[in-house]
Fold:
Amino acid sequence: MHAYRTHTCGALRAEHAGQTARLSGWVHRKRDHGGLLFIDLRDHYGLTQCVIPSGSAVFAAAEGLRAESVITVTGEVVAREAGTVNDKLPTGAIELRVKELVVQSTADVLPFQVADDSPAPEEQRLRYRFLDLRRERLQRNMILRAQIIQDIRERMIATGFNEFQTPILTVSSPEGARDFLVPARLHPGKFYALPQAPQQYKQLTMVAGFDRYFQIAPCFRDEAGRADRTLMFYQLDVEMSFVTQEDVFTTMEPVIRGTFERFADGRHVDAGPWIRIPYAKAMLDYGSDKPDLRNPLVIRDVTEQFKGSGFGLFAKIAASGGVVRAIPAPGAGGNPRSFFDKLNEWARAEGAGGLGYITFDAEGPKGPIAKNLEADRAEAIRVACGLNPGDAVFFAAGKEADAAKFAGQTRLRLGNELGITEKSGFRFCWITDFPFYELNEDTNQVDFSHNPFSMPQGEMEALETQDPLTIPAYQYDVVCNGYEMASGAIRNHKAEIMVKAFGIAGYPPEAVEERFGGMLNAFRYGAPPHGGMAAGIDRIVMLLAEEPNLREVNLFPMNQQGEELMMGSPSTVDEPRLKELHIRVQMPQPKK
Structure:
């Protein structure tokens, strides 16, 4: 007989009755029923009830066990009596009558219970992550993650892609976040960078003549942690040669959709082709470039209806170049005043001055705004928003970007308050035509808005003849349920366009040559048109697991301060090691 087990704790069934079995695992629960001691023994595969009578030679040893101690038990598999069968447990038709017990390791008093999913402070959960991971929910999440990655890998290979690995130690690159830097001991004063994404290497793979590349790639970004963003993450990285934007869509959509369909567990998944929404329309209709399409509300622009109107506040905003956005609220008109007051308080907590509204009934428009707004203008707003008696409309006004953002927040809030946002299922769309450049409000200079290695629509002619802020790029995102799940672009494959594009963003030619010389040099030796995308593995798992936080689908995550509490990372380094790396640490001075 094997030293530790003949079966796993999830394997025994009624047909094994009468056999001798050996199991190893953790003490999940222990119950003393007078003359009998019951131990629920757990391993990765399941749970088996073990029974030890009071006269047994191992009773004393079993009685002293703490939860989460690791033991090996040997005994006879016995069919449970009819009234004691546990139909909720795969092994619920049997129990193991223990004759031998070996304690492999004992557990200290637990900082929190493993046998149930009762809440524990996040810091404690992360510090004792190895215990937290024993819980059923997290075990399920990690297995789901492994299965999703395997499924994606198989789909990519079946679609004709080859998996390659790109370097982890690379050069700093402007990807939109701070790099993690690694000192180069053999090159004093120089640093490697951990890749924010394998962007340049995957493009160079296409220049090298490979046609379809993918990688489950680790990426690193030195930025503040959030529920849907971590310092280190994994992405499905993809690149293809001789493709248009449409080719990327038609190739990758079935891969993503297929994975979601496999793991949706009965939840709706949008059939293809997914709708395509230009960036400008997404900002107008949804107030976000990451619209949650489970919410049916569509924002309308009603600036013209307020220009020169009797409602002075919005008329003034419209006259000064601002905008007024209307967020329809079907069925909200019949709510009590407290409903509107609650939303007004929420708006103020979000930093807005308030949340104006109009309600409609059989007699016409009602509410504070309607009192000062001409009847024909109120009617035009009602028609524009497709509203009927019993409905209401809320407003966001101000500078275009601010009004769009607040209107988007209000749309999401109303969807939940009115109960019209779908609670399950996966709604997808492609967001297209992102602006190539944006204005940096801090410096008042033109910056790249999304990905500096993208091809501007119109190529060199657009860069030479158009206002940079009006140039769209061949850039696109996949959005699912309000999350940016993937991002990509058709790449710029021409050295002269790359130099010109970076020049507009303030990089002189010599700086472009210094920072991106490897890619520029490759482009000068014949580069194919190419494009691709990257999909966040962590976010895909988070969505399919219906978890609110990426930390719940990562094996050993960091906290929001970028600390891995279990191992104590980041940590200090002793002086001899720093000297070897030619580094002197200068600590920040305390504020006076």
Observations:
- The chain has 18 helices and 22 strands.
- The CA atoms of residues 293 and 582 lie 53 Å apart.
- The mean pLDDT is 95.
